[in-house]
Amino acid sequence: MSSRIGARTAGLAQDSPDPAQHSRTYSRRASLVVLCGGALMTILDGNVVTVAMPAIQSDLGFSSAGLAWIVNAYLIPFGGLLLLVGRLGDLVGRRRMFTSGLALFTVASVLCGVATSQGALIAARALQGVGGAMTSAVVLGMLIALFPEPREQAGAIAVFSAVGATGGALGTFLGGALTQALSWHWIFLINLPIGTAAWIAALRVLAPDRGAGLGRGADYPGAALVTGALMLTVYAIVGAGERSVGGTLALAVVSLALFAGFTLRQARAERPLLRLRLFRSRLLTGANGVQILMIATMFGFQYIGALYLQRVLGYDELRTGLAFLPAPVLIGVLMLGLSARTIGRFGAYRVLLAGLVLIVAGMGLLSRMPVSGMYVVDVLPPMLLLATGFAAAMPAVTGLAVAGVAEEDAGLASGLFNTTQVVGGSLGLAVLTTLAAGRTDRLLTGGEVFAVATAGGYRLAFAVATGVAGVGLVVAAVVLRPARDSFAPAAPTRSRP
């Protein structure tokens, strides 16, 4: 409104929009669509296999332990490489990194779809993880460059967050629908036309950018240390339920040693991969910490909620996917319709706290999930609370994480933010599923029937997730409290006579 007032008081007589400005706005919106489309494909693929795993196990003969590697083979390179490729995007150009990642991801998807052995599928999934990291790591940095003005940036981030949130939930639905209607091969083969179209659109729409050059900031020893540390961390997390506590602790110690070596390297390197001064930003560090706790909670709900519907209430794959469908629909509507305006009016800090309160309330209701539960009474209400809370919290925490990040560090900050998403999701999944399985085993040993024991394990996991979300709320309230919210509404502007 103030910009329109300013234009009128400046004496602009023409009513028609400036053609150059209109073209620039269209170009930016088209770029936003392409970036979100590429990110959506990688996000979907992280979840689409969940419902299809029994069919894959039956077809390729995976053991129960080996089946987990269909997911792990994707997560480990994806989470481990995000920080490195985010920085490389700053050096070689983010458009080049994004389009290369799309091409690699599409090729790897085809290899997954035509795989006829366990080894071929796992190797192709790992290649998918590399392509997914290349595509995802630079998206947020490109959005910051495209939309530098705070309110426009909040709107773009809301769209991007909506795509990410709905993509995760839609993956469960699409996995069940494609597997039941066609076969599990099509959950991967569907990426061929989508990926090809996204790659062509990216080449045509995204403006070329020149990176700083590999000679500036390419700390390859540091890259090896941090990539190894991140991959080992994700590996330790996702495989925690399959090994002894001592084995997991040993991996954790080695991972911490690699992180320590990386930190020392960055403090002394002439051209560090990660500028440690980034962590002086209270908003960047605090927002990433809050995101880890929030994503751990939401991933736990998505995975354990699907198991509850199937193992306790007896839903099939398609019905489970349909049961989750209201969540992405609500998230998309709220993020696209209200998120940017709400943040613009009340500020990211207040919106984040309100969203986290709703997430805590939703998880608290799930922790009372009965054995003979009803979907419309026991599942849908807390799901809608969680969806509303996530729709408010995710764009807000994303905006806080990138507030004040310099242009030359945007790709690195984007990679860091995506890395904490993967680590948070993997950590939440590993901890909550391990707790649920342990509680279920104890109840079965005590003589409970399967449904009662299984529901008891899930209730414990949801109760712990409630506590994790509560910790995230406290951290956000204390650490992210700003002197002046950077997303607060600007003061009203009066036109001069």
UniProtKB/TrEMBL annotation:
Domain of life: Bacteria
GO BP annotation list: response to antibiotic
Alphabetized Gene3D superfamilies for the sequence: MFS general substrate transporter like domains, Multidrug resistance protein D
Alphabetized InterPro entries for the sequence: MFS, MFS_dom, MFS_trans_sf
Record key words, sorted: Antibiotic resistance, Cell membrane, Membrane, Transmembrane, Transmembrane helix, Transport
A single MF term (Gene Ontology): transmembrane transporter activity
Name of the protein: MFS transporter
Organism in which the protein naturally occurs: Streptomyces dioscori
Region Disordered, annotated ranges: 1-24
Matching CDD domains: MFS_MMR_MDR_like (cd17321)
Mode of membrane association: Multi-pass membrane protein
